[in-house]
Design a protein that fits this description.
The protein has 229 residues and is of the alpha/beta class. The protein is 36% helix and 19% strand. Helix 2 links the parallel strand 2 and strand 3. It is globular.
């Protein structure tokens, strides 16, 4: 794997009363992407925020806004998130019957397109849309809440998807229960983007955010080194 591993802190774990300042803090602390978990209380059992919040904080960072839509139906809302400032829009394979159409819509809006699969979903659901993808996101928890434990059975799925990707320029992202220990496991399996919420935002200070991101990055870098040894 030649691409550098990217760290994408999830703002779901941020202090929402200070969301703009929190985004500035993780940007300064070394975040590569800003991960935005959008939940509708229908597709997943939680409600987070919508496009207006993303629009309000978009100016706080020039980093990539990696918007993960845990909503259904999804197509009717893609334009709103594109206009709000999303750089990557990721939809769930489970969220609607026409995944190919959703991905075409995202590309037509000028955005990078991603697909997410839940722990119980096999990777073969994305085989027919690989050439429409910029990103594949493997959930290593059941979506809906932060702070859950990493589901290790997903490591084999990550390995199989890495093989499916082949030489396509597709990023392979992991979201759920990521900390320095599980980051190393995910990267060893083939992931190259790591979403971390609780593990980044613990400590609640700019200094702790920098230390937390550095610890995850060091673990990921170490895993790459071991795989090449």
């Amino acid at each position: 794997m030649s691409k550098p591993v990217l760290i994408a802190p999830s703002i779901l774990s941020a202090d929402f009363a200070r969301l703009g300042e929190e985004i500035e803090a993780i940007d300064a602390a070394g975040a590569d992407w800003i991960h935005c978990d959008v939940m509708d209380g229908h597709f997943v059992p939680n409600i987070s925020f919508g496009p207006d919040v993303i629009k309000a904080v978009r100016s706080r960072s020039k980093k990539v806004f990696d918007v993960h839509l845990m909503i259904a139906p999804v197509d009717a809302y893609l334009e709103a998130f594109a206009k709000a400032g999303a750089d990557i829009i990721t939809v769930h394979a489970e969220a609607g019957p026409h995944l190919d159409r959703s991905l075409q819509l995202i590309r037509a809006l000028g955005k990078r397109a991603g697909v997410t699969i839940c722990p119980a979903t096999p990777e073969n659901v994305i085989e027919q849309v690989l050439d429409r993808l910029d990103l594949i996101l493997v959930m290593t928890v059941n979506p809906g809440f932060g702070g859950q434990s990493f589901i290790r059975s997903q490591l084999e799925k990550i390995r199989r998807i890495r093989t499916m990707i082949g030489d396509r320029p597709i990023r392979l992202e992991v979201d759920g229960g990521v900390n320095p220990e599980t980051a190393a496991l995910a990267v060893s399996a083939g992931a190259d983007v790591l979403v971390a919420g609780s593990a980044v935002f613990s400590g609640k200070t700019a200094e702790s955010y920098r230390a937390n991101i550095s610890a995850i990055r060091a673990a990921a870098t170490g895993a790459i080194g071991e795989s090449h040894a």
